[in-house]
Write a structure and sequence with these properties.
77% helix; Ferritin; binds MU-OXO-diiron; elongated; single chain; mainly alpha
Length: 173
């Protein structure tokens, strides 16, 4: 059984993951509308992954006899002007998700909820991977600069990849 404090913190994270999914969906739509079909593909997949993160949390809350709350979403507000900014946003957003997960882990420890603490280790590892991937892509973008041919190949190669597969492949984007 979850304490009310842990239940609320988990539902807050549910909302954050859902908002992340919508935010990445908005970035995917921008990329799709601006000729970056590969980047769009990557971000659509990223959006799906965030929804999976949300569902995993909800299922856990239900498993522990808590109430999983379907969140009301904020309208995603994006202001990107180019594909580079998509990945800068991705990185910044993942850093904020990591901070939120760390806070949640801290609440579980304070509440002596070691079961939830254990469950959340999956998210701790996932965040490590997601931040590292976003950072690797940004490094690659820095190398490409304004080389249009490099961007063409980058957009082609990133299609169909996910954050996890980029990390698993040793980041060969
Ligand atoms: Fe579910 Fe990328 O944080």
């Amino acid at each position: 059984m979850l304490s009310k404090k842990v239940e609320k913190a988990l539902n807050d994270q549910v909302k954050m993951e859902g908002n992340s999914s919508n935010y990445y969906l908005a970035l995917a739509c921008w990329a799709d509308s601006n000729g970056f079909s590969g980047v769009a593909d990557f971000m659509y997949q990223q959006s799906d992954e965030e929804r999976f993160h949300m569902l995993k949390l909800m299922k856990y809350v239900i498993e522990r006899d808590g109430e999983a709350v379907v969140p009301a979403y904020d309208k995603p507000s994006i202001s990107v002007k180019n594909a580079t900014e998509i990945f800068q946003d991705l990185y910044k957003h993942e850093v904020s998700v990591t901070q939120s997960i760390n806070k949640l882990v801290g609440i579980c420890l304070a509440e002596n909820d070691f079961t939830t603490h254990n469950f959340l280790q999956w998210y701790v590892s996932e965040q490590l991977e997601e931040e590292a991937t976003a950072k690797t892509i940004l490094d690659k973008i820095k190398l490409m600069g304004n080389d249009k041919s490099a961007w063409y190949h980058f957009d082609r190669d990133i299609a169909g990849l996910s954050v996890t597969s980029v990390a698993d492949s040793g980041a060969q984007v």
